[in-house]
Amino acid sequence: xxxxxxxxxxxxxxxxxxxxxxxxxxxxxxxxxxxxxxxxxxxxxxxxxxxxxxxxxxxxxxxxxxxxxxxxxxxxxxxxxxxxxxxxxxxxxxxxxxxxxxxxxxxxxxxxxxxxxxxxxxxxxxxxxxxxxxxxxxxxxxxxxxxxxxxxxxxxxxxxxxxxxxxxxxxxxxxxxxxxxxxxxxxxxxxxxxxxxxxxxxxxxxxxxxxxxxxxxxxxxxxxxxxxxxxxxxxxxxxxxxxxxxxxxxxxxxxxxxxxxxxxxxxxxxxxxxxxxxxxxxxxxxxxxxxxxxxxxxxxxxxxxxxxxxxxxxxxxxxxxxxxxxxxxxxxxx
Length: 334
Prior knowledge:
Rossmann fold; globular; alpha/beta; six-stranded mixed sheet; D-isomer_DH_NAD-bd
């Protein structure tokens, strides 16, 4: 059987081909799945999609009409999938429920320290042989307070690094993580965490209840010199409100690996044509902001685990097996 994989990065292609070798043929495309590219999948029973694929109702209808029966998404998040429509169309949808939490947690810290110590500005200067220190003043994180919003596997990994730095730890989640408590984390209300933290990192999924969890009111509660990091999902932050606060001169630094309107931008080369997203264009002009293109997960370890899980999801579908990775059909209510 030949499997069609959308949105495959050049680094991923040999890994995907090797993982499926001896089992199935795989056709790798660098284009992303959306309304325009969905017809390409006609005749393919199984397709694999990337994190920013458009799997809304219209795309799913096109896939089903073309004969697709199984979608293996190569990511953990599934806010881009209309699960109700998929269920109605009898499409099997599976995801990668977990992969290396260290990839994202370590990258979140990379962003935090890069904005704190002005690494981008410093590196740009030295390329021009400008070795002044003006404007490069950072601060120790030791002894300061880290607020971790979401303390699952990735949040826990981030917390362990914060503990290693010797930081005070505040956490907020629907349930406490005993491993974080053992590190000295104090669970508090979200409002208290926002008000008292010197560094805030977001590690919750994007759900209706978490959409714009960091909005105008939440941003107003934060310290003027806070460091804010988001390596989870762009929709957690109201970017327009964030730009307003940045224009007012607030925040020591902001590190964003995700953006709420990243579809159609991230993973693509827009350097020649530019972009018409005024909010993103304004955001990247602030000297205390770093925006990267959803690369926190992008390590050999994590990508390898994602691909291996995708291969197993395909094998489970063909064998009629079910796993915790399956989103559709939904598990019956107990």
